[in-house]
């Protein structure tokens, strides 16, 4: 990302959500994005994921220039390269676990078998259950399986543990760390929980739409080693 700016609205009501952000993310990196509410974290993630466009500046992903991409190009970029995980799981209630994940394999070019994705999130035995029969943490793990079944290079997580209790949140973090280390998927995780920063290769802190600091933790911790 180079000199990335995003302004919502115009005139007196304009909100400058991102101001001149420069950031390079290496393939396979695990980045934790911290910052106060309203500091621009989701805006940054949405632009990186091709869900939104910057007002000015440049975003590149490998040889794709997202800034000039047409709507169709952005759709293809999201479909082929990006997996999203949000705070709320957005599963389809009338479909089983397996069917929720299989929806993605129907449109992906090189998906992994659904059962492999479910095994990665330790949910293979629940494949025929419906979302309402699962706990919040299990539903989030289905959402992660759905995000990674197409083998995206980039996994973008916006508050993935925000709705979960301590133990369940840790289980979900374990799954994200495993995807990052076993599949080499680049992971960017937004959180309000500064303790999660210990899992990262780098911790990027936003303040008022700008990068306030980038830190490299002395040693990358496993989720089991984190406490809050
Ligand atoms: N669609 C929009 N229209 C107008 N302003 C917006 C819009 N989306 C976000 N904003 C504003 O842009 C700023 C950054 O919002 P953003 O959601 O990126 O922050 P955040 O750091 O993710 O916050 P939180 O931690 O509360 O989710 C905020 O001031 C927000 O009110």
From TrEMBL:
Residues 1-226 form the ABC transporter domain. InterPro entries: AAA+_ATPase (IPR003593), ABC_transporter-like_ATP-bd (IPR003439), ABC_transporter-like_CS (IPR017871), ABC_transpr_LolD-like (IPR015854), MacB-like_ATP-bd (IPR017911), P-loop_NTPase (IPR027417). GO terms for molecular function: ATP binding; ATP hydrolysis activity; transmembrane transporter activity. Signal peptide: none annotated. Coiled coil: none annotated. SMART domains: AAA. Gene3D superfamilies: P-loop containing nucleotide triphosphate hydrolases (3.40.50.300). It comes from the Bacteria. GO terms for biological process: response to antibiotic. Keywords: Antibiotic resistance, ATP-binding, Cell membrane, Membrane, Nucleotide-binding, Transmembrane, Transmembrane helix, Transport. GO terms for cellular component: membrane protein complex; plasma membrane. Belongs to the ABC transporter superfamily. Macrolide exporter (TC 3.A.1.122) family. This is ABC transporter ATP-binding protein. It comes from Ramlibacter lithotrophicus. The lineage of its organism: Bacteria, Pseudomonadati, Pseudomonadota, Betaproteobacteria, Burkholderiales.
